[in-house]
């Protein structure tokens, strides 16, 4: 088996829904990321053997295989193919897994994996049109809104509304601190974005984090999914626009190109979980990835567990015993946003840069997904080769 390494990773700043990225087409946004990725790595696009992109709402400007479309927009040679996948919120993390697997088995040597989502220009669920769930499916499983799944998780793990809101406040505090300290500057590309009047301006900072977020303020928000419930817009992830991409290679190819690998993929996992609770998969995915790697929770320096809703990382911490000081240290999707198809690659990019900044060795990322699934990935920083 070939050893799979990460040579480079980059992401856009994440825009709020109807924010600064609202006038940028998603196919063009992902193309900008692809161009930036190859420039940063000093790799000719002709070396790329596939572009694998996650995108959830594959309709409108995100239809027609956006991976291939964006690669063509970015000026990649016509010989470079592209494929777009949907594993819900973990789509671009799964893209990284598929790329890693293709390299590990020797089918390919150089693959770009990433994702994109414009939740402004292509609203969530727009790809479903007027479709309803199959009766044969609903006879087997109780299918409910993810917000109601989050409510049930909060109840099952005895998480109070105040605890959920306190977690959300901390997510914003950490994100704002990270921005103030410049922690995202290396991982985030600058992009020129048009405004309502057509004038261009430079965007380099995530729009989501809100200064002044407080327990008092969040306590005033109405429940979003259930009367008397605990889940509000304040303790759930933000709808967002953004893109991210990772350049993976076999170690042999990286060395042949004279490149120094930054990280290696240690192991990957994907699991199915209860489709009603839906968001509990990161726990099983975490344990599966650790078991495959022969590592323990104590071996991991940093964790990223996507903040789809506050109960997700909170129940995960209760079950694993991982200290919050090692989890989502620069804030998460509650503050920074959740551009569905891009989130997996975005989190991977952040995890890599934070391990670099702190000198950590191992990082583990887990993302919950619609209909009850989750991916987990463990990466190792290759300090001695930098």
UniProtKB/TrEMBL annotation:
Statement: the UniProt record of this protein carries the keyword Nucleotidyltransferase: no
Active-site positions on this chain: 89 (acyl-thioester intermediate), 338 (proton acceptor), 368 (proton acceptor)
Keyword tags: Acyltransferase, Transferase
Residue ranges annotated for the Thiolase N-terminal domain, each copy included: 4-251
Family matches, as InterPro entries: Thiolase (IPR002155), Thiolase-like (IPR016039), Thiolase_C (IPR020617), Thiolase_CS (IPR020613), Thiolase_N (IPR020616)
Top-level taxon in the UniProt lineage: Bacteria
Protein's recorded name: Thiolase family protein
Pfam assignment, any one: Thiolase_C
Molecular functions per Gene Ontology: acetyl-CoA C-acyltransferase activity
Family note: Belongs to the thiolase-like superfamily. Thiolase family.
Higher taxonomy: Bacteria, Bacillati, Bacillota, Bacilli, Bacillales
The Thiolase C-terminal domain, residue ranges: 260-381
NCBIfam families (alphabetical): AcCoA-C-Actrans
């Amino acid at each position: 088996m070939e050893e799979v390494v990460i040579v480079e990773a980059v992401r856009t700043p994440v825009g709020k829904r109807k924010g600064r990225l609202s006038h940028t087409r998603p196919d063009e946004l992902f193309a900008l990321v692809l161009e930036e990725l190859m420039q940063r790595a000093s790799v000719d696009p002709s070396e790329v053997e596939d572009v694998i992109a996650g995108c959830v709402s594959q309709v409108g400007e995100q239809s027609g295989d956006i991976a291939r479309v964006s690669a063509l927009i970015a000026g990649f040679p016509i010989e470079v193919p592209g494929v777009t996948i949907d594993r819900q919120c973990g789509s671009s993390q799964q893209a990284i897994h598929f790329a890693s697997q293709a390299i590990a088995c020797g089918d390919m040597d150089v693959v770009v994996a990433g994702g994109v989502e414009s939740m402004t220009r292509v609203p969530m669920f727009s790809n479903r049109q007027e479709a309803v769930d199959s009766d044969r499916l609903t006879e087997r499983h109780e299918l409910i809104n993810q917000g109601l799944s989050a409510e049930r998780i909060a109840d099952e793990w005895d998480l109070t509304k105040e605890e959920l809101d306190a977690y959300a406040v901390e997510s914003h505090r950490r994100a704002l601190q990270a921005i103030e300290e410049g922690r995202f500057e290396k991982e985030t590309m600058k992009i020129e974005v048009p405004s309502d009047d057509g004038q261009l301006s430079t965007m380099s900072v995530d729009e989501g984090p809100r200064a002044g977020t407080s327990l008092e303020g969040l306590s005033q928000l109405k429940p979003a999914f259930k009367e008397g419930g605990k889940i509000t817009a304040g303790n759930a992830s933000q709808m967002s626009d953004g893109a991210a991409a990772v350049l993976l290679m076999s170690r042999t190819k990286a060395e042949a190109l004279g490149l120094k690998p930054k990280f290696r993929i240690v192991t990957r996992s994907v699991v199915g979980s209860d489709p009603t609770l839906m968001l509990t998969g990161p726990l099983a995915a975490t344990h599966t990835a650790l078991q495959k790697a022969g590592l323990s929770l104590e071996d991991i320096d940093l964790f990223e567990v996507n903040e789809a809703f506050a109960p997700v990382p909170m129940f995960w911490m209760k079950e694993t015993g991982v200290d919050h000081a090692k989890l989502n240290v620069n804030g998460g999707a509650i503050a920074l946003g959740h551009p569905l198809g891009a989130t997996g690659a975005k989190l991977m990019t952040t995890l890599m840069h934070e391990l670099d900044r702190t000198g950590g060795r191992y990082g583990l990322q887990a993302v919950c997904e619609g209909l009850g699934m989750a991916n987990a990935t463990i990466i190792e920083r290759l300090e001695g080769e930098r």
